[in-house]
Amino acid sequence: MTISIRELQTLTENFNSDPKCSYSLPALVYIKPDFLNIEREAIFYKSWQYVCHVEQLRHPGDYIAIDIQGRSIVAVRDLAGVLRAFYNVCRHRGHEIVKDRGQIKNFVCPYHAWNYNLDGTLHSARHLKTIENFHFDDFGMVAVQIEEFCNMVFVNLDPEATPLATQSGELAREIQEAAPDLGKLTHAHRFTYRVKGNWKIVVDNFLECYHCAVAHKDLTTLLDMRNYQVTTYDIYSSQIGPVSMTSNSNSAYNVEGASVQEHYLWWLWPNTGLLRYPGDPNWMVWHFIPVDAETTIETFDFFFQQSTPTAQQMEAIEYIDKVLQQEDIDIIESVQRGMNTPAYEKGGRFVVCSGNDKGETEQGVHHFHGLYLKAIDRYLQGRSLDQIEQAPSSDPQQTIGAFS
Ligand code: FES
Ligand SMILES: [Fe+2]
């Protein structure tokens, strides 16, 4: 890797636990390709990652293969009805076992047909008798943690990770209160975007509505920004606000007669957005997936009471796709270009608002940056410099102390 010690030290140099006194993350974490290698180990292989709505794994034999930053994982409902996840890797010679999604009774590797039960144990393989000292129990698929949380399925590649329900405190209760019908909703639509911006710029932008009055003029005719509340918790934050009662010119989309009159948005560390917007009963999951330092794939999944959106639902979907998201993509890609100049090296500042302006606060972005720095710190603790960089001048015995 080519990240220098000096660069790692600058990450926390200007960060302060009080957002009013703090700088935001410096530009290098948004532009240096090597940071993604550290982030994979420090963040993406250690956190709860969204897989799908539980309806996709409802029946025994349902499976779905996903990629988590280069690691192929399969989630499955086994024949006894237990939700499980494994590395999607055959223990014979390492071939991936399944693709996409579907329904199966056994996992059969497409290379030499080793056959695994859906609980991951090795069932059979051809000519095994020719191998000496072979023990079936040593060659089961390697399990990873999986959890159903508010009708969604998440996995965590860290065997030591605490359950999502424990880590996320009151989040499940908040979601259930806001969306008691979540279990009855079904997948109705997906948008996928490839954005020319670092995944953290996408998250930063997701976490504040300071830009809304400037960049999302239609959205601010729909929402009552004076009552838009931003709250941060351990590993999540929320932005909740009602539909405006005073605006007589809502130009976003029609919410007449809508049963949902609030805009709910939760961010779950590190890269998942959970939303319910004014309109018919709905749920959205936004997933921000890093491709490289300057490219992010965003998926937006929409869930409604039926799998074909109504005309009114389509109006909301089209506003989100063609107006709101295009406005955000323009912002994200512009910020990425800005990060690539010397003008932003040190990072920026956070605006922290209260009272009638509370909806415009950037404390959610500060909260994210704090969690980010903690995760990088945890990763660096105890690692010697030669594990972090191979710079010829470095002392391989010295450990990074800048984050403690
Ligand atoms: S690699 Fe899977 S059966 Fe050979
Ligand atoms: Fe936005």
Structure description:
- By secondary structure, the chain is an alpha+beta fold.
- It folds into two domains: 280 residues, Naphthalene 1,2-dioxygenase Alpha Subunit, Chain A, domain 1 (Alpha-Beta Complex), CATH 3.90.380; 112 residues, Rieske [2Fe-2S] iron-sulphur domain (Rieske Iron-sulfur Protein, 3-layer Sandwich).
- The chain is built from eleven helices and 17 strands.
- The strands form three sheets. A seven-stranded antiparallel sheet has the order 1-10-9-4-3-2-5, with no helix packed on it. The chain has a seven-stranded antiparallel sheet with strand order 11-17-16-15-14-13-12, with helices on one face. Strands 6-7-8 form a three-stranded antiparallel sheet, with no helix packed on it.
- Helix 3 crosses helix 10.
- The longest helix is centred in the C-terminal third of the chain and has 29 residues.
- The C terminus is likely disordered.
- Bound molecules: FE2/S2 (inorganic) cluster and fe (ii) ion.
- Fe (ii) ion binds next to loops.
Quick summary:
With 404 residues, this protein is an alpha+beta fold. Helix content is 26%, strand content 25%.
Kindly state the number of beta strands: 17
Which cofactors or ions or other ligands sit in this model?
FE2/S2 (inorganic) cluster, fe (ii) ion
CATH homologous superfamily name of the largest domain? Naphthalene 1,2-dioxygenase Alpha Subunit, Chain A, domain 1
Order of helices and strands: HHHEEEEEEEEEEHHEHHHEEEEEEHHH
Model regions low in confidence, pLDDT < 50 over at least 5 residues = 390-404
Quickly count the domains. 2
